[in-house]
Amino acid sequence: xxxxxxxxxxxxxxxxxxxxxxxxxxxxxxxxxxxxxxxxxxxxxxxxxxxxxxxxxxxxxxxxxxxxxxxxxxxxxxxxxxxxxxxxxxxxxxxxxxxxxxxxxxxxxxxxxxxxxxxxxxxxxxxxxxxxxxxxxxxxxxxxxxxxxxxxxxxxxxxxxxxxxxxxxxxxxxxxxxxxxxxxxxxxxxxxxxxxxxxxxxxxxxxxxxxxxxxxxxxxxxxxxxxxxxxxxxxxxxxxxxxxxxxxxxxxxxxxxxxxxxxxxxxxxxx
Amino acid sequence: xxxxxxxxxxxxxxxxxxxxxxxxxxxxxxxxxxxxxxxxxxxxxxxxxxxxxxxxxxxxxxxxxxxxxxxxxxxxxxxxxxxxxxxxxxxxxxxxxxxxxxxxxxxxxxxxxxxxxxxxxxxxxxxxxxxxxxxxxxxxxxxxxxxxxxxxxxxxxxxxxxxxxxxxxxxxxxxxxxxxxxxxxxxxxxxxxxxxxxxxxxxxxxxxxxxxxxxxxxxxxxxxxxxxxxxxxxxxxxxxxxxxxxxxxxxxxxxxxxxxxxxxxxxxxxxxxxxxxxxxxxxxxx
Lengths: 271, 286
Hints:
The complex is a heterodimer.
Chain A (H helix, E strand, L loop, with lengths): L3 H29 L3 H6 L11 H10 L1 H32 L3 H12 L5 H14 L5 H24 L4 H9 L4 H12 L1 H17 L2 H6 L7 H11 L4 H35 L1
Helix pairs in contact in A: 1-13, 3-13, 4-7, 4-10, 5-7, 7-10, 8-9, 10-13, 12-13
Chain B lengths: L5 H28 L16 H6 L3 H32 L6 H9 L6 H23 L11 H28 L4 H9 L4 H12 L1 H16 L3 H6 L11 H11 L3 H32 L1
Helix pairs in contact in B: 1-12, 3-6, 3-9, 4-6, 6-9, 7-8, 9-12, 11-12
């Protein structure tokens, strides 16, 4: 056991570091409540009167309701498809111990090495030729990029699920698909949470792929933020209010699910 | 479930289609077209290694590679140092440890694009103001020179990713048996000796994981680069990923951009594989 005094010092260091870590958010928030003139006269001062006009203007210019809807739609559908398809694939690969399934697993895992920039030019060209540069095409691309890590995680989790469960279900007259849906998939729930969290984080925040696929009409939050910021480069009060609005959904989500998020990320990272 | 079973293939069809159509076909298609005069739609002539040979004299591309390697090297060292330090801090029995974990991890959830914009404000306005107040000239005009742009990107990346690396180290720190530490204490080892001889060797696998992650992430950084410096001043803080996007979509040189992308893929693969190989070897020795 460490001495009380030593722990006290560690605690103070920790709190100071925590405040330092939060300071960028504090500076963003405080200045988002100021007028243009106030920011110019001193960024560290508190606002004279907390003005909410910046937020109203930024909200309208960001078309936030529409971009939030697009972000939610694309993220939820993509992650749902990734969870469903990858868990099925992980199950099939784990239950089939053959050279072929070993090779397929290796193929999926090695695809993680391929940087997005190496395939983006032909990807955009190919999908453009079949008129798939839209939300559906984007969601399909997320399946292609997201399935590797997800299959890998599901495959690992399957080792903890006894094969006798499959056999019992088959004897009871279930087919393979029913066995998977009713018996296996519910047992995979903890890893599904991990897979879901990891995929939500990158898909929600992805900028480059939507910027190549979607126009401004169907823009997600990061994409809209990019256009918005370009428009208000020299008007920090509006730009900062816009950034604050864009961050709010993430902070709210983190507030409700912080335990699962940190646990999910650590499981994904360690495996 | 055997290979011959129809259900085996049915279960795999969606992901195989995804992987093949989104990753494998574009990779092969792109590699082939990097040897032609492809403009994104059609190619008329085969040019052989012309694009690849041109790359050798493309200063902008070479500068981007050098910048990316330097940035990655510095980031890996700082991130692992910071991540391990934070992990050691929050695994102590302090009252705020859970809250601190939540705070340190928070930037990871917000996209790199948005974080870059926030830090653009901090470097330009906040640093500028503080520099003026304290009469420190070096704090003014951040992001307007190559070296401050470089350090700006490093600071942003460290702030964003340290919490992630911390999480990895925490997982390994918690697996160290407390009897081992107690025994060392009884034997009279001081806290530095305990760290050097017990903690550090036992978290070596975490170093493998986090080094792989920091290396591959920092090599592929695009969003932060775009929103923080946009490659400026004069393309001096431009990383490889951004250089490729610009060549392809701003300059509209698809085949040449793809040649760069192929080289990028090869570099990333070599680095990642070598690094995993060496770290695995080192782990066994310990």
